[in-house]
What we know:
mainly beta
Amino acid sequence: MATTLRFFSLFTLTLILVNFSTTNGVFFEHSNIMLPTNQQNTEKTTHLHFFYHENLEGKNPTVIKIIDPSTHSPTGFGASFMMDNLLTLQQELTSKPVGRAQGIFGSASLNDRGLVMLINLVFIEGEFAGSTLSLLGRNPVQDTVREMPIVGGTGVFRFARGYAVVKSLYEISTSENFVVEYNVTVSHP
Length: 189
């Protein structure tokens, strides 16, 4: 009985492995499944331009440190922050709000001021109201101009991909309002 049970288990396992390797043993597969969307299968490219306002000091900071590793690293390696920053149409803080930049970032480099960032750009204005774009990638903040990837989105930006070119505006920034210009190019259905 034990020999029969072992043979049956080994035979079943062999069938499962053979079946698995023949159906899933490829690097990729294309799917013909149509996902529900409001639009046809045509792709658009959208360009967005707005300003990001980060408040580290004062009565209402929009960035807070959530992890302080106390490593004494010159790059702040390991320090992590949570943010909820205002996005505006023009570079002035009093300009029309178009959304929020909500997310988390941390110092991820021992050699420079390279951050790893996860940001959700949450739009509240116009045809993009209620839609989001997600950025996930490296942000070398020591560079005045840098590029970060758009890895997805929701609403109008479902299945989005693209990039954001960001520029620190040191000439108009203060200790209470650090301003960054965003130029976003995104492809989406």
